[in-house]
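Quick check before the chapter quiz. The format below is the same one you will see on the exam, so make sure you can read both the input and the output lines.
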Amino acid sequence: MSIWESFKIALSSIWNHKIRSILTMLGIIIGVAAVITIVAIGEGAKTQMTEDMFSTEENVIELYYEPFPTEDGSDMMWIEPELTGTDLDAIREVPGVKTVIGTNQGWGMMVHNEKQSDMQITGVGPDYFSGRRLEVVEGRALNSRDVDSMNRVVMIDTVAKKKLFKESEQVIGEIVDIDDNPYKIIGVYESPLPEMYRGEEGESLMPRSLISMMFGGNEIQNISVIAQEADTLTETGMMAAQELTELKGLEDGMYTTYDMGDWEAEYEQFLTIITLVISSIAGISLLVGGIGVMNIMLVSVTERTREIGLRKALGATRGRILLQFLIESITLTSLGGLIGISFAVLGAMLVTQFSPITAVISPIVVIIGVGFSAFIGIIFGILPANKASKLSPIDALRYE
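Here is the expected output.
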């Protein structure tokens, strides 16, 4: 008997006992579907997180000041060094640095006619637009002249425009009040934040020199280094921090880095742990399903004892009988695996439809799912198949 004929007999046996076969496959179906769905959600969440973190800040390293601890361990008052445009120019010369962005922050109530929005205001220079992926949809971007002259101009994002202006209203050139001071809108930009992270108030950009004058802080409070290559992100950040520390002649502290790659690694580790835990639970379902397969195959051997005896009497070898029942077991679990994959695809589609995560089903995971199902068929089918192959033809033919 060929393998193909054995496979057809296996399908016929499964079809003749449909309800029993479905119940037997249930554990396999649940286990495979759970594993593939969880891995797909994890991959989708990781991809979404990476896009959200790096879509507007690719290869970014943030520099921040860290004071040295005192000898007695007590807290001490410290003042962060004042940074200038000259410091930014020096960091740009560090090998591996593409550009440097200096910003400061403010917060104010923007009012236009009877509408108002309490929003964050970021003070920027012309380097901001070359380093960040900002799309100016109306008007123009801030330039070096705006910063040097402290021009009373502002850019708003699309969220703020929608909140403060009607769709038909002219925006460019309009005057808005921020904390009772007039400012001219010169541009509208697409908010760089993913929609799920956008607030209802919107954000705005101003010359950082103007923010410093308005709120009394330093003109440069935050430094972001854009590296040329992702592979040398950490090294570039360390060299830039060391250059700034030496440039300012610091003795009570130093500049250091914390890049977003660390966040990504921690998040990926968290997802891996969750995936392993849930996959382990699904593995228990696969184990239970495998035991069910073994039980049903033992029942099948008992039911087909006379058939086995007849085949042996006609010359079927022990190996042929063993192979026949192994093929039936593998077919049963493989079908369960395929049905489980179908449910996993459906589950991934539902997750993608009703959540911000796009579940990603990897072909490798699907192949592993089918392969593992077949492997369970082999492991839990060996005992019944071995029992069938050892039956004596005479005893089997006399079995009632």
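If your answer matched, good. The beta strands are 60-67, 97-112, 115-124, 136-139, 153-157, 175-178, 181-189, 203-207, 222-227, 253-259.
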